[in-house]
Amino acid sequence: MMKPKQQYFRAIAIGLGALAALASAIAAGCVEAPSGLAPGPTGGGNVSDAGVEAGPVIINGRDLFDSMQADLMSACGLCHDVAGLADTPFLAGPDRYQSFVSWPGIVSTQPENSLLLTYAMSGKGHSGTNLDSASLKDTLLPKVKAWLAQEAQNFTQPPPAAGPYIDPFAPIMGFNAIYLGALGAEFEGMAVTFQAELLAETTLELTNIELHPTSKTGLKIVHPLWVVHPLGKDPNPDPVDSFSNVDTIYAAGESGELGPGTLVLVNWSRDAKLSLAFETIEKYEPASPDAGDGGPTGGCKDVASFDANARQPLQVCLNCHGGGNGQAVAAVDMTALSSDSAKACGQIKNRVNPNDPPASQLFITTNPDGNAAHPFKFGGQSGAFNTFRNSVSIWIAAEK
């Protein structure tokens, strides 16, 4: 007998295979459209002239953002635009709304948990202009709170039968790192990374989709399912269930492609969100205590080049990856950078691209001229970043 989540994924596979026939019937007026995977946002319903409940009134968060964008840029743009004074470019153009809503921690199903209200306020450690300052508390702050409340209402969730899933998120148009720690403590530091690009109004392409386990723990993935959450509508899964045949083990310390590594979602819509569900996701214990620490399968080819060209520049990463931030260490462990070059090299190698060194995640995430969500970008200093990239790239190229 199949478990509920197995039945759910099987039902999706069967339903997706019948979409073409259903589409024809719906066009002919013979049947109703399928209801989708989960109900849309609740509350705020309105009644039509015929007295029939017409569903909730959906206000696009983009509209509220547009009404406060000028104030936001005036108060926050100097630091939080691309190459700003802070390493958090969540107001990057050209689509500042997309950048803002997609930055981790900005929007939440619980508005009071937003970084805007837990950090950018007096006494919370924020060094810039706080939203509750005298000049903003009666002007910008009420607009921010109204926007956060509306964004919270516009979240939808897959049903529990979907199996473990990552909550809906707005993808960054560029590099994305989606951490799996929300699925359980055993997944802390693991991540799915990808590049997102809008090809057309209804088409979103994900490329370079990779799964990153940690140095100590591997991962088994069965049938990941990407789900689009259109604004004000039911969640809508990948129409062709592109990753249905995935059943992959990722050894500790060994990153790799997730499924085919590329996905084209033709059911995208403006300001939609994504979620990722799994039929199975479970940790995979390494074969030996030393697995993933720069051993025979995960080690570097040229540790000498790593020592000569990368070890010293990478010291700037140690504040977080050297032990100061648990999630950062789990993602890329640099704790051995000063004591064991081979071990550190084996870890960092999982986030570089020897075939195209400038395209390495190590650089995409730290580039001050990029919009990747990473807390360190050389303080907006492009010269310092270029020096770092040029030196470390010599080692990366040697790993080819």
List the helices and strands and how they pair.
Layout: H1 4-17, H2 19-27, E1 45-47, E2 53-56, H3 61-80, H4 96-102, H5 115-118, H6 140-153, E3 165-169, E4 175-179, E5 191-200, E6 203-212, E7 218-229, E8 236-237, E9 247-250, E10 256-257, E11 263-265, E12 273-284, H7 303-310, H8 318-321, H9 326-331, H10 341-348, H11 361-364, H12 382-398
Antiparallel strand pairs: 1-2, 3-12, 4-5, 5-6, 6-10, 6-11, 7-8, 7-9, 7-12
GO molecular function: electron transfer activity; heme binding; metal ion binding
Signal peptide: 1-27
Protein name: Cytochrome c domain-containing protein
- Characterize the biggest β-sheet: 5 strands, antiparallel
The mean pLDDT is: 84
Q: What string, H for helix and E for strand, traces the elements in order? A: HHEEHHHHEEEEEEEEEEHHHHHH
Q: Give the overall silhouette.
A: globular
Task: Write down the Rg.
Answer: 23 Å
Give the count of structural domains.
3
Helix content: 25-40%
**Which strand-content bin applies to the residues?**
15-25%
State the oligomer.
Answer: single chain
The class by helix and strand makeup works out as alpha+beta
The count of strands amounts to: 12
Detail the poorly predicted runs: 1-5, 13-54, 290-297
The span between the termini is 48 Å
Q: Total number of helical segments?
A: 12
Molecular structure report:
- GO terms for molecular function: electron transfer activity; heme binding; metal ion binding.
- InterPro entries: Cyt_c-like_dom.
- Residues 1-27 form the signal peptide.
- Residues 56-152 form the Cytochrome c domain.
- Keywords: Heme, Iron, Metal-binding, Signal.
- By secondary structure, this protein is α+β, with helices and mostly antiparallel strands.
- It folds into three domains: 4-24 and 159-284, no CATH class; 61-153, no CATH class; 303-398, no CATH class.
- 29% of the residues lie in helices and 18% in strands.
- It is built from twelve helices and twelve strands.
- It has helices at 4-17, 19-27, 61-80, 96-102, 115-118, 140-153, 303-310, 318-321, 326-331, 341-348, 361-364, 382-398; strands spanning 45-47, 53-56, 165-169, 175-179, 191-200, 203-212, 218-229, 236-237, 247-250, 256-257, 263-265, 273-284.
- Strands 3, 7, 8, 9 and 12 form a five-stranded antiparallel β-sheet that branches.
- A hairpin with a 5-residue loop joins strand 1 (45-47) and strand 2 (53-56).
- Helix 3 packs across helix 6 (140-153) and helix 7 (303-310) packs antiparallel against helix 12 (382-398).
- It is globular and about 60 Å long.
